[in-house]
């Protein structure tokens, strides 16, 4: 029996297991998937919990529900991987040998990386919403928030789901309007980027939306510490932003077993070929999802498109061929903008988000870089798609490679002139 071991039973790992289980002869292949948590979390739903749109139970299901019954699920933290002996060493001392290893252990927030973040104000006036407990705690705090300065701060890039901070600030604007206290709340979006988003055209559109919603945008802010006594965040160049309530997206890092295995960079992200999704050093290791060091979004859609590519490339490799498929960095995201509307963006390594329609020209039904109710409905419907189609590894009628179908080309020179004038 040949052995496939998958590290991480989240979105990317679960999809890959289900796809390969359908393609390979289970009489010849043994499947093991390792994770430290028995529950699967629908992470896009964490965003909705602080605003009482979702509850805790809406985003949790047991992992075993989504795995083939003959696959072995091992619940244990990983101590390290020894790629020379081709073994995964678990924290309980067990050694799991493999013929091929797929790494999909994702990324997580590390508030301990920022001075003062996890001190007296943590979970009192300083909250995250990238964890389930953080989102639930923030929900309770928002219910009692009567007014003042709410600051959302991104510590540094990259982060998983890079549009989620934008969605949070837009939903906060809508939430306080519905409560009738928006005029008592100052909203500020503080980012290390030079604009509202990583891509210039989208950054311009989203920046204008912030202006329209009276959300202050503070750019090029690299947080150095949280001052718990004065209730302010301080940048490395000594700029200060005071807050009454701080919503933070702390430093994101891969799992510490990557460091112990000496397989990653300083943030524990794993060097991955951007097109084949093969480890840059070890030919029997593949990486996908948030665990990679690829220059694309750490988002569920990316994991989905990567899984489509990696499925075929993995089959090529085990059958003795070169990888036939090339990942282009394709990502798309719905962005909740409040008021029952949303935006959609679609892009890859080379093409930034453009206006237009998705996935079909003239038909859509989704609009790119434009607020519509249909985009909002798409965001809400995605939860059903996630549980019922994506995790089971079913084929969706979407191209894994980005296409220009439906997109409107933008004259970058005119865009730049307009930005200078404004």
Features of the shown structure:
422 residues; alpha/beta; FAD/NAD(P)-binding domain; 3 domains; five-stranded parallel beta sheet; 24 strands; globular
Structure description:
α1 (11-23) packs parallel to α6. The longest helix is centred in the C-terminal third of the chain and has 19 residues, at 300-318. This protein has three domains: 2-108 and 254-318, FAD/NAD(P)-binding domain (3-Layer(bba) Sandwich), CATH 3.50.50.60; 116-252, FAD/NAD(P)-binding domain (3-Layer(bba) Sandwich), CATH 3.50.50.60; 331-421, no CATH class. It starts with a strand and ends with a helix. The chain is an alpha/beta fold and 422 residues long. It has eight helices and 24 strands. The protein has a five-stranded parallel β-sheet with strand order 5-2-1-9-20, with helices on one face. It has a five-stranded parallel β-sheet with strand order 11-18-12-13-14.
Number of distinct beta strands: 24
Helix content: 25-40%
The CATH superfamily of the largest domain bears the name FAD/NAD(P)-binding domain
CATH topology of the largest domain: FAD/NAD(P)-binding domain
Largest sheet: 5 strands, parallel
Total helices: the number is 8
What Rg, in angstroms, do the CA atoms define? 22 Å
**CATH architecture type of the largest domain:** 3-Layer(bba) Sandwich
CATH class of the largest domain: Alpha Beta
Side-by-side strand order of the widest sheet: 5-2-1-9-20
Strand percentage = 25-35%
